[in-house]
Every structure is written in C-alpha cells, then in structure tokens.
Amino acid sequence: MSLFNKSRKSKGTSNGVQAGKRNQIENKELKEAIGNAALSTLTQGEHYESLSGLSVEFGYLFDIEGHGIEALLKVITDKGTYYFAAQKASVIRLDFDEGKYELAVETFLEIHK
Predict the structure, then answer these.
(1) Which residue of 40, 72, 90, 100 pairs with 96 in a disulfide if CB–CB is 3.0 to 4.6 A?
(2) pTM check: above 0.70
C-alpha cells in the first residue's frame, strides 16, 4: 500500500495540464495525507512548540501518469517554515528558503502546463 492512496488516473487535459498529468491541488484528502507525513518528520520543541496556528501550503500537487505524486509544500509553525517535496510515496525535507521554494514552484508549473 502506498503512502498516498491515489484515485484513478486521468488521461484528459483538464485545467490546462498536459495529458497524463492531473492537478490534485483541490484534493483535500491527499493534501491532508501529505501534510501529515511532512509534519510527522518535525519534532515538538525543536521545530514547533504548539500545533495551534500551524499551516501547510502547497506550491503544486500533481498525479503524473506512470510516475505518481509530485508535490512541493511548506509547513509553517510557531518556530519556522519547513519545506518538503512529495515524490511517488515519499516525503522528504528540503534545504530551501522562500526564494528557492518560489522558483521551484514557478519552474515546475511552467514545465508541466
């Protein structure tokens, strides 16, 4: 079983995305699963004191046919902002700052439109 339960893949070109790629930015269940996986890598006391006020923001979230999930996101806590990539069934923490994050999001969206 994969980390992110994926629904069936679309071969259409909805919302301007190339065939075989499905924009999942509105998929609340998938976003929660990825956000929870990212949050589970952070440590209370070191990366956050309280979960109150915590937010997760996605730069992009796609399901790519033959590849799987691709996402870039950030988790904002009371102690800082932490950047993550989701690829296939893994979530990895990135050594990014806001500038690198914005550039990566912009580049990915430009390549995959």
Answers:
(1) 100
(2) yes
